[in-house]
Amino acid sequence: MSTEASQNRLDTLQPIELAEGVEVRLRIAGPLLRGGALGIDLAIQWAFILLAGFILSLTGMVVGGLTAVGLISLMWFFVWWWYPVFFEAGPWGATFGKKILGLRVVQKSGSPITFGQAVLRNFLRYADGMPFLGFGVMGIPTFGFGVGVLVATQRFQRLGDLAAGTVVIYDKVPPEPVVPSPPALETIAPPMALRPEEVKALSAFTDRAGLWSEGRRIEIADHARELSGSKGAAGVTRLTAMARWLQERK
Amino acid sequence: MKKGNFEERRQQAWREFDDLVGSLERRKPMAGVSELPRRFREMCADLALANHRMYGGEVVTRLNDLVIRGYKMLYRSQRKGGESFVRFVVRDFPAAVRKDWRLFWLCNLMFWVPFGVMMAMAWIDLDWVQAILGPSGMSGLEQMYGGEKEQLSYLRSEFGSNFQMFGHYIQNNVSIDFRIFAGGIVACLGTIFFLVYNGLAIGASAGYVTYACNPESFWTFVAGHSSFELIGMVIAGMAGMRLGLAVLKPGRITRAKAIGMAAKKALPLIYGAAGMTAIAAVIEGFWSAQGLPSNVKYTFGILMWLLHVAYFLLLGRGEREA
């Protein structure tokens, strides 16, 4: 059906076939937005560590300082390794950062990820963070590997995503605005048989034509003058008439 | 059928499905939730139909959204309970380690050879050991294990210090396991580096203490938790090597696919490694530094090592992997 056509497209809509034999489309999130989500998560993690560390240190003065130091170590461990795992494996399917930016982690099939997948993709973030700046293996992560792999894969997957078989998608794809053009007064059969993509383009044109000025409509319609056989306003009218014919035929 | 007709006829069903899924998303399932699978298939059929007839635009977007939301609800993964945990401990984990026995020995070599070399170097040429430990490392070791009697139990006499060290060992040692694992995806390099590095560092420490400090205080301390910690680390290394080998030697599938398959095999290994290292942290925090007689601690340590041999050799045999 449309799979073949969409594979060569430049946009981030990924067609995915479900077990039910139907194809849905997921919009894959790109590196910039995911970097933003990571930034928000890091800020939240640091803020939590500082705040909870402060509170624990205060209570440590009462119950014994060393116990508090132990608790801070444990908190550190859970915040850095397990915070993203629990939130991504939970009902949100996203960390706070991803949730705020409207992203979600799913399996390649579009279904929610399992706990094991959350573990894999988040533990491997360490490898995605390479190469490190300064201090050898404990330095500041540059995420060079992660970004490199991300832009080299078709579905924007970093190493952790490849290992876990996950993708990051927009949770809700905002619908494309539909403002139909004024209805065509007549119906005209297209002079030749149209391919599916062409039919789609034609109906998309009439669905959105209301958004554009007259001049813009003409500009777009002129690209299809081979089909309409005329230029300018007449071309627009003929195209909408053909679109109406195609719709009514069904 | 025209687009308008189609929408008119199916409108009602779509709205009902929307309500049903919405109620599930809010975790307050309404009546008739058992019809979800049937209704979901209807939505799929509608979407396929709308795609096929190229109704385009609004209808397809709406149905696409409904199908995705329904799919999420229908295929939610169920969190498994305690039963699978027990099955993992008594069967799946030891079986997974045994299945990769070649990697197990390879990772053992990568740790124990540098360890043994550094141990020996303490007698042959101490410069090597000193170069690895550095002045601060050596003075730290002397402070902990330098005295005539056991000093660790005195260092741990302040209230809460056992818990402090437990927290530290969890944070430090389990993180090392995870890094050993993650580093493997870079063509095994990270795993090899961490295993060899730890072998050198731990071997140098053990060699230096045995040569220059009070060996008994050191060996009684490490006897209890060493089996859990070191075998755990080696198993984390196996998990990392699995990933790395998939990158280096994917076989007849694509690299991306090979990494995915290797990760699935590595998952039980990394769970088990993390669990073992966590147990090591408990022992190291609350048992290893107790002021008990040396032979009690050595006996406990030897028992733990034997327990590991028995665990990995005997458990989880006979049953086919699910």
What's this model, at a glance?
The complex is a heterodimer of chains A (250) and B (322). Chain A is mainly alpha-helical and 250 residues long.
* Helical proportion of chain B, percent range: over 70%
> Largest chain-chain contact?
A-B, 64 and 66 residues
N→C terminal distance of chain A: 18 Å
Structural class of chain A: mainly alpha
Query: How many individual domains of chain A?
Result: 2
Helix/strand structural class of chain B: mainly alpha
Let me know the number of strands of chain A: 6
- Approximate shape of chain B: elongated
Percentage of residues in helical conformation of chain A: 55-70%
DSSP summary, beta strand count of chain B: 0
Strand count, sense and barrel status of the largest sheet of chain B are: none
Beta-strand portion of chain A reads: 5-15%
Low-pLDDT regions of chain B: none
Number of domains of chain B: 2
State the end-to-end CA separation of chain B.
Answer: 49 Å
Largest sheet of chain A: 2 strands, antiparallel
Q: What is the mean pLDDT of chain A? A: 84
